[in-house]
Amino acid sequence: MSCRPRLASHIYGCRTVLVLSLLAVALPLAGQNPTQVPHPQIPIIRANTTLVDVPVLVLDKQGQPMPDLERQNFRIFDDGQPQRISGFDNEPRPVSLAIVIDTSDWNAIDQAKRSAELIAAMVIGAQGQAALYVPGPEPKRLLSFTSDTDKLANILKHLEKSPTAAQGQGSVVEPLNLAMLDLRAQPRERTRAALLITNASDKGIGAEALIESGMSDAIPVFRIAANRPANAPEHTNPDSVDQRGTGQGSQRVQAPPAPVSSRGMPTSGSGSGNLDLAPIIGAAAGLAGKIFTPHHLDYVYYTGGISYDPGDDRDFDRKLSLIGEELRSIYHLFYSPNNLTQAAAVHSIAVQMDLPPTVNLGSTTYRRSYVGIAPH
Fold first, then answer.
1. How many CA atoms within 13 Å lie on the side-chain side of 41?
2. Each residue of 237-296: pLDDT tens digit?
3. Which residues contact 247 (CB under 8 A, 6 or more apart)?
4. Burial, 318: exposed, middle or buried (Cβ in 10 Å; 0-12, 13-18, 19+)?
5. What angle do CA 302, 101, 308 make, to 5 degrees?
6. Any bridge partners for residue 53, and if so which?
């Protein structure tokens, strides 16, 4: 029997909009035995129990998912203190996948075009839904969540290079932040995840906001690097001297600057289908000093995802198919922390495996942190 809690937000007086959403991990449940997770069809409200959802992916030494584990095979620690697992869900869930393609990179564009059918068929699956995002002077949602795999594949096959962005804009982290905002609106009974196809690092500018987002929601980010496809066309750089010339009037027309808020953050243009990213991007300062080492600002690690760097087209397809399998092999562990205080604090999560030595255990990845506060 699967345990999929219906969770409700808890609002606290904090400095930024994002931190308010971060504290939604302190999820009040009602009419419930604290040792059980309610059935998703039974609406229950209670304000004195905090429940943390920990997606866990367990791989063997060959890098394949291990799908047949039981509750007793897992141990959870919250800031080093052992916790009682009050809920366990090992049932495959339909997938809500936010796909982010780094269209500032021709390799990512060409790989997305080449593997469009595979992304639609293998990663999303029959009951899955996907949305599509790209960077630019403003990050854009090219496709809202849909189960129409033909439509998704068609858009992937016709991706174009992002317009030249102003300095400091166009980072692949920006559309990923936009994707995470949309994923929060997807039902919690689904596997909510992001797939990022890019050669950019899974660290760096903007990563703080993604890590904070990972503290708020049980949404892993999977990253796959894009090698140059074997039969990719030759692309010229439209901003090179050869293409632009050197004389007056020969400069290529740049995309107009994105509108910005009073805080200097990009905001949506009318009718563009974009969202205001100022709250989530501007909220990075509050918890940046509390990020744990040695994976400083590594949002894939902290959200519980995996980063792959394939060597050729065949390896790219294998890794993409593996991500599809992993999305259907995620365990969900639930626990009520026994060490919360009245002050909001970042808590570290650790998951250990309790398996016989003969088991071919490889690696375990999981949500690494959350922001907790004792319920009133």
1. 1
2. 554 444 444 444 333 333 333 343 333 333 433 333 444 444 434 333 444 445 555 566
3. none
4. middle
5. 50
6. 334
Distance CA 98, CA 144 (A): 9
What sign results for the dihedral spanned by CA atoms 199, 143, 123, 5?
A: positive
Angle of CA points 142, 190, 80, to nearest 5° = 110
Distance CA 1, CA 172 (A): 39
3-state secondary structure of 324: helix
By DSSP bridging, strand 50-60 and strand 74-78 are unpaired
DSSP 49: -
Residue 196 to residue 47: CA distance in whole angstroms: 36
The b-or-e profile of 245-273 (16+ CB within 10 A means b, else e) is: eeeeeeeeeeeeebeeeeeebbbbeeeee
Q: What's the DSSP call for residue 23? A: G
pLDDT digits (tens, 9 = 90+) for 57-116: 999 999 999 989 999 999 999 999 999 999 999 988 999 999 999 999 999 999 999 999
- DSSP for 231-297 reads TPPP---TTSHHHH-SSTT-SPPPPPPPPB-TTS-B-PPTTS-----HHHHTTTTTTGGGPPSSSTT
Please name the residue that has the structure tokens 């922390």.
337
Peptide bond into 294 cis (omega under 30): yes
Phi and psi at residue 240, in whole multiples of 5°?
-75, 165
Neighbouring C-beta atoms of residue 63, cutoff 10 Å? 14
Name every residue whose Cβ is closer than 8 Å to that of residue 175 and which is 6 or more positions away in sequence: 100, 133, 134, 135, 139, 140, 141
Top-confidence range, 29-38, 105-114, 123-132, 223-232? 105-114
Q: What share of the chain is helix, strand, coil (3-state, %, to 5)?
A: 25, 25, 55
Query: Is 95-235+263-327 a CATH 2.60.120.340 domain?
Result: no
Q: How far is CA 271 from CA 126, 169, 185, 187, 275, in A?
A: 31, 20, 21, 26, 11
**What is the dihedral angle through the alpha carbons of 150, 154, 155, 158, rounded to the nearest 10 degrees?**
170
What is the SS3 assignment for 366? Answer: strand
Give the Cα separation of 369 and 303 in Å (integer): 8
